[in-house]
Amino acid sequence: MGNRPELSGYYFSSAACSFFNISIDELMGYEPQMGREDIRKLHLRLSADFASQPFDEVLENCRVIAKKYFSCFPLLFQIGALLVNNSMESSDMDKALAVIAEAKEMFIRVNTESEDAELKQLALNMEAFCALTLGNPNEAIELLEGTSRNIISTETLLAQAYQMTGKSREAKSALQVGIYQHMISLFRAFPDYLMLCTDNLKQFEKTFTRAVAVAEAFDLKNLHPSILVKLYILAAQGYTMFGNTDRTLDTLEEYAELVTGNIYPLKLKGDDYFNLIDEWFKDMGVQTNIIDV
């Protein structure tokens, strides 16, 4: 009988937790965490699930995981990114937008509570993307306008440090990762800037020419063909607006040649130049079969 009050207290706590939709772990302050490799594996599994299983079932599984690991901010960010990337799999546009709004709340939590500066910035960017998608451009401006536009790169310092300690391979890998990321970042800006230049044919053609030159220099048709798709489509639209039928058809031929070529399955990968970045993809938990267009 002496243990009855303690047991009663336990049962009372369990009932209360159930009533208030809170777990014993949360009540006691326990915050489960997941390691980077486990996050990577889970990300890959959930991505495959979105491609092969009913959307609502996988969405609910994501919610359960996000609730369990509510303070594992790297995982929470990945769950949010998965929701954004797969939201349009829902046949209901209102539901898709609701999922994006749900992901946005995850990014807000990560940005507000994480102590990882890089993760906070990524979460802020994704929050702004969600705001744009939800039709709130002023909110995106408010989120991003005051942030630093400086490109801060640690790759050169890291490479020098590796070189000084005799780690030549690690130095090369660090610089390859830096070059790759800056190249992709540059190329992502080209299509958007191209459409802003549809009021000036000369600037439009200069932009398209330089974008194609970057693509050829880095062999993007083989390295990252999906990133070229948007460029060709927007370039064709732009030439149509200028009334240049010949250039429109030429660009569409480039597009058709690309998308009907031997580029599938689309995945993020290295090549004979970026020969040390596949390991980085794995370490970062990047899902290599994401179609990034």
Write a short abstract of this structure.
The chain is built from 15 helices and no strands. Helices cover 71% and strands 0% of the residues.
Describe the fold and architecture.
The chain has 293 residues and is mainly α. It has two domains: 31-144, Serine Threonine Protein Phosphatase 5, Tetratricopeptide repeat; 155-284, no CATH class. The protein is built from 15 helices and no strands. Helix 4 (55-68) runs antiparallel to helix 5, helix 7 runs antiparallel to helix 8 and helix 9 packs antiparallel against helix 10 (168-196). The longest helix has 29 residues, at 168-196. 23% of the residues are buried.
Question: How much is the radius of gyration in Å?
Answer: 23 Å
So what's the oligomer here?
single chain
Order of SSEs: HHHHHHHHHHHHHHH
Domain module count: 2
Uncertain segments are 1-19, 286-293
- Helix content, binned percent: over 70%
Which class best fits the helix and strand makeup? mainly alpha
Largest sheet: none
Q: Given the C-alpha coordinates, what overall shape results?
A: globular
For the termini, the CA-CA separation is 67 Å
Strand content: under 5%
What's the tally of helices? 15
Q: What is the arithmetic mean of pLDDT?
A: 86
Number of strands: 0
Spell out the blueprint of helices and strands.
Layout: H1 4-19, H2 24-27, H3 36-52, H4 55-68, H5 73-86, H6 93-113, H7 117-133, H8 137-144, H9 155-164, H10 168-196, H11 201-217, H12 220-223, H13 226-241, H14 245-259, H15 278-284
Helix pairs in contact: 3-4, 3-5, 4-5, 5-6, 5-7, 6-7, 7-8, 9-10, 10-11, 10-13, 11-13, 13-14
